[in-house]
Amino acid sequence: MEKFEINGGKKLFGEVEISGSKNAVLPIMAASILAEGKSIIHNVPRLEDVFTMIKILTYLGANVKFDNQTLEIDSSGINKFDAPYEFVKTMRASISFLGPLIAKFKKAEFSLPGGCVIGSRPIDLHIKGLQELGADIKISDGYIVADAENGLKGRYIFLGGNFGSSVLATCNLMCAAVFAQGETIIEFAACEPEVIDLALYLSAMGAKISGIGSPYLKIEGVKTLKSVEWTVIPDRIETGTFILAGAITSGKIKVKKCQPYHLGAFLEKITACGITCEKGKDYIEVSGKSFWQATDIVTLPYPGFPTDLQAQMMAFLCLADGVSVVTEKIFPERFIHVSELNRLGANIILNGATAIIRGVKKFYGAKVMASDLRASAALVLAGLMAEGKTEVSRIYHLRRGYENFEKKLQNLGAEIITGKE
Ligand code: UD1
């Protein structure tokens, strides 16, 4: 297994280009099976999750080419409608195929996704919505077996759960509804930029969707969708991670090819800590300080503070002056990184879904273990500023969601190398 070895204490300077958004491209890849002909998708990051989606598409019978950052998907050969556990266990986003398969082929058989280290990940909202559209859904031998022999019918679907809406359930239901007969309304739809990107992609293909970007989506069923060329939005979580890399190392980084307006809540908090972020049309330049203030954050659905930046922000707040309180409202158990950050010298106490962080002067290098994708990034950020050497093991988690992470950091002046465990 791969690990990172980091010699901490180097200020990071320079420019970094942000890759395409992981969470946007995954449902877009699944949605491409709705189109007739070849779909071309640009700005696709070369990530493990993307390769898993390619494996599923190929397994289903699609012909996929991936050259540089461009994917070509021809789904005319699809002749299978199931996804075995071996695919679903590595990546929950494979559930994104459910809606498109039911819409186009009127059936799907998917292994139920298991638990996940960031907490329980139910799929009740996906199932409820598909049932309301008329799919017959049974759970059998660990599989969701969906059948919509008579086609789907447009309906009103209320998608709110205890934690707000669901990103991938909104994506699945939008895809399911594009061929449903009549009008579908999704109330309490997720409004994340990645959901908007999918809605715009479907619209470019010929879907009739209104209310895009709002929690009230209206979808008028159509008969067919055409294939199109699409460019995926920049990854806002990678953007936030590199801004934090500049801030935590007291460096200065110009983060290019990003979309600043996707990061409003995050930038407000960074600014509240005393860090300067200059925004341009497609860049953010962060100028770090040697000293920054504590602040409180609460993770919320978009446009609130993203849960996918909670761990990385926490690493930064560990070195702030004062006490910060971090409350996780999306995945209340998403705190596995806390014990590892404490091993590096942080002072964090957990109380349910709230972490209390008393700022310390420095991190001290140690061996730590990555537990999930974003927690891995948090440990790397801490390692960048730790005194001495930090080893982060199990970085395969990181490969799922950060393209060329160590190379991009090396170009900014970080001393980070890959080793074997
Ligand atoms: C997506 C993102 C993930 C991000 C998350 C929240 C992708 C590939 N992944 O995951 O990176 O952390 O949004 O922004 O886009 N829930 C239910 N029932 C359901 C579905 C969800 O109760 O049927 C709950 C979840 O447990 C969680 C909350 O709703 O508490 C939000 O989860 P959801 O938006 O569905 O996350 P994902 O779409 O899986």
3D structure, described in words:
With 421 residues, the protein is α/β, with parallel strands linked by helices. The protein folds into 2 domains: 2-15 and 291-420, UDP-n-acetylglucosamine1-carboxyvinyl-transferase, Chain (Alpha-beta prism); 22-231, UDP-n-acetylglucosamine1-carboxyvinyl-transferase, Chain, CATH 3.65.10. It is built from 14 helices and 28 strands. Strands 25-27-1-28 form a 4-stranded mixed sheet, covered by helices on one side. The chain has a 4-stranded mixed sheet with strand order 2-17-19-18. A 4-stranded mixed sheet has the order 5-6-4-16, covered by helices on one side. Helix 8 packs parallel to helix 12. The longest helix has 13 residues, at 48-60. The structure holds uridine-diphosphate-N-acetylglucosamine (UD1). Residues 23, 26, 92-93, 121-126, 161, 163, 166-169, 190, 194, 307-308, 330-331 line the site of uridine-diphosphate-N-acetylglucosamine (UD1).
